[in-house]
Design goal:
Structural class: alpha+beta
Number of helices: 24
Number of domains: 4
Distance between the termini: 73 Å
CATH architecture of the largest domain: Orthogonal Bundle
């Protein structure tokens, strides 16, 4: 190892067998092999790597000859090796040849790919010092079937280990050059600082501000992916604040900036911008889904456009409608999947639902289910979205420095679950009134209602009977009874239905700890 390298031997480090096997195959074929990038950074920080990357002096075609289960479909020379591991982080391992840095005319992709022969050249082209550390495995001592203790050498040309200890994000070499090569690095610096709880070094930070406009040249999908990682971190509030501080938010989500300094009424301690960030952080603190985090960030984005008046009596009528439209525009622009867009827009549109159990009626709860379901049956997916809506209300409340009220939430959840089952509705029958009239060749009248009530009582006791053929047969059998007998059966059926409702309500109350 050349003397100019800042190298340090580490003993007794544990690596997965899949990684050791790839390293061994590359070296047996006569090539150099280094782990590099985020996985090395994570290993040093004693975190489990989310993915694994090798770099080598082998060319793509040579790599593929070594690894039969591999594919290569990019212009960067990266070969993806399939390991067969059940561990998600190890299923696919990427191997990239050493590369020289070239010109980036479009600020996104190098004009041409030139492969290098030395690890030094490859490390010089990387974005940040903490990602420019290479790891060479020197020896292996098996300890289990899947794990091995290893001695290895860290190749650290740019003092990345020192920056890891100091918790600093610093560009490799000249920051302006690094960001002009690939403008996504502007956002990646913020993402890494957010995920790792690091600070961005002053010179690097200044270069981000000077080059912030270059983010416009980056594909929206790549921006979206970095933005998602910021939101899914433990401190997304800080990440969004950094995007604003460094001038990047202006080019990514300018609509969000409209809330800066926009004061609210007596119900709020914070302005619109601060409240939305606090709601986002509350969603992260509660480990809510990405959809809830997005909705928490955008739920009041319509307020600056509809605000009337100032001071404690200011109003924001229809901000939920305007906000939903703005949210759809933003997420569509950032190329979010349609499924995520639809749910987040629904959450923003409905975040003002009545959450007072004393005021939310069964009719209102059914109406809310219809808005969430939007034409779908109330299945597991719709129930998850309803829970996300409740979680959004929790984050919204916490963003106002108000604690969620467990009893009130449980009462709302109980009511929503009760009406979602709709046990008193004949709609759950596999046959309807029109079909009964067709079977019996009769006009509308009380007989239809009596038959439906009797059938409903039967299937509540035995749901397996809710089949069209069985119900048709029962309609024909019951049609021979007198009107007086049918009314008596209807009364008996109504009593059985009410008992079933009482039983179900007790089960729901017990589930949500409500007396």
């Amino acid at each position: 190892m050349p003397e100019q390298f800042n190298s340090k031997e580490i003993k007794d480090f544990v690596l997965p067998k899949e990684i050791l096997e790839i390293d061994e195959k590359l070296k047996k074929a006569g090539f150099e092999s280094y782990l590099v990038g985020g996985c090395v950074r994570d290993l040093i920080l004693k975190k489990k790597p989310k993915d694994w990357d090798f770099t080598t002096n082998a060319k793509p075609e040579e790599i593929q000859k070594i690894f039969e289960k591999s594919f290569y479909d990019n212009k960067f020379g990266t070969v993806s090796v399939l390991t067969g591991s059940k561990d998600e982080s190890l299923k696919t391992v990427e191997i990239t040849p050493y590369r020289l840095e070239g010109k980036y005319t479009d600020k996104r992709h190098p004009d041409e790919i030139k492969f290098a022969t030395k690890i030094e050249d490859d490390l010089k082209r990387r974005d940040f010092t903490i990602n420019a550390i290479a790891l060479e495995i020197k020896s292996k001592i098996p300890i289990t079937k899947s794990q091995t203790k290893s001695k290895f050498i860290l190749v650290d040309l740019f003092n990345g280990q020192k920056d890891l200890k100091k918790k600093i994000i610093r560009a490799v070499g000249e920051p302006n050059e690094r960001f002009q090569e690939d403008a996504l690095r502007l956002m990646r610096a913020v993402r890494l600082a957010t995920e790792l709880d690091f600070e961005i070094e002053k010179k690097t930070k200044r270069a981000i501000k000077e080059n912030a406009w270059l983010i416009k040249m980056i594909a929206k999908e790549r921006i979206r992916d970095e933005f998602i990682k910021i939101l899914e971190s433990k401190n997304p509030k800080r990440g969004v604040e950094m995007l604003e501080e460094l001038g990047l938010l202006h080019f990514i989500i300018p609509e969000l900036r409209e809330g800066i300094g926009v004061t609210q009424n007596w119900a709020h301690l914070y302005n619109v911008w601060e409240h939305q960030l606090r709601a986002l952080q509350a969603a992260a603190d509660c480990n809510f889904s990405l959809e809830v985090r997005l909705a928490a960030l955008f739920h009041d984005i319509g307020k600056p456009y509809v605000k009337k008046g100032e001071g404690p009596d200011a109003t924001f009528y229809n901000h939920d409608i305007v906000g939903a439209e703005a949210t759809k525009k933003i997420l569509t622009r950032l190329r979010f999947p349609k499924k995520i867009i639809n749910e987040v827009v629904m959450l923003v549109r409905n975040h003002m639902f009545n959450s007072d159990p004393e005021k939310l009626t069964a009719h209102g709860a059914r109406r809310l289910w219809r808005r969430v379901a939007n034409g779908r049956e109330i299945n597991q997916e719709v129930r998850r979205e309803m829970q996300d809506l409740i979680n959004l209300r929790i984050a919204d409340r916490m963003g106002m420095e108000k604690k969620p009220r467990p009893f009130r939430l449980r009462a709302i959840e109980a009511l929503l679950e009760k009406v979602s089952r709709d046990p008193i509705s004949e709609k759950m029958l596999a046959i309807n009134g029109y079909e009964i009239m067709e079977i019996l060749k009769i006009e509308p009248g009380p007989k239809i209602g009596a038959l439906l009530k009797i059938l409903l009582a039967e299937i509540l006791e035995d749901p397996k009977k809710n089949k069209k053929e069985y119900l048709k047969k029962r309609v024909e059998e019951l049609s021979g009874l007198s009107d007086e007998s049918l009314q008596e059966l209807k009364k008996s059926a109504q009593y059985r239905i009410e008992k079933e409702i009482e039983k179900e309500e007790e089960e729901i109350k017990a589930k949500y700890f409500i007396k």
